[in-house]
Predict the structure.
Amino acid sequence: MNIFRLAGDMTHLFSVLVLLLKIHTIKSCAGISLKTQELYALVFATRYLDIFTDYISLYNTCMKLIFLGSSFSIVWYIRRHKIVRRSYDKEQDTFRHHFLILPCIILALLINEKFTVKEVMWTFSLYLEAVAILPQLVLLQRTRNIDNLTGQYIFLLGAYRSLYILNWIYRYFTEQHYVHWITWISGLVQTLLYADFFYYYFHSWKNNEKLQLPA
Amino acid sequence: DAKTENHDEL
């Protein structure tokens, strides 16, 4: 464990807690894409298959349980909660996220580190995580206005993967045999997808104006 | 070794 990875995990944890807090306190999911949340639940479900078979550390197991619990409860809130679900913008959240899942499955079957069920599912979860934010970014483009908590949520989500990139660089130089091209490339693609959002987020923060994404 | 096989990152 290094400071970059710990900071990345904490930022990631904080991003889901910010989202859960927002939905739980104001009983609204306005501006949040259910599709992105479903994709994240799928990412965690396929990545943490080994949660009961391979014990790595208490920290690792606890964090996996928190991420699984929070992502599925966010999906539950938006789908089932009688008040929250009314604020879900079904007409705007139209990204066909099934079109993201299939290519990721095919790519995971073609490019992986080891052709086993667990490894292919793990690789699938990496590819899916890289593109899972797309429905959310499309929704933001459509609804144009971003409320603070949603903006913070996306910023933290992008920041966590950027910190992971620093973690991979650190591990590459400090641990021999630590080479995971698949992880590095999908993590880089994921972070690049946030790049334009970061640009507008930073400028709105600098000029202290409401965050507006261009049409 | 088994360690690197197991993905130790979240």
In short: The mean pLDDT of chain B is 69.
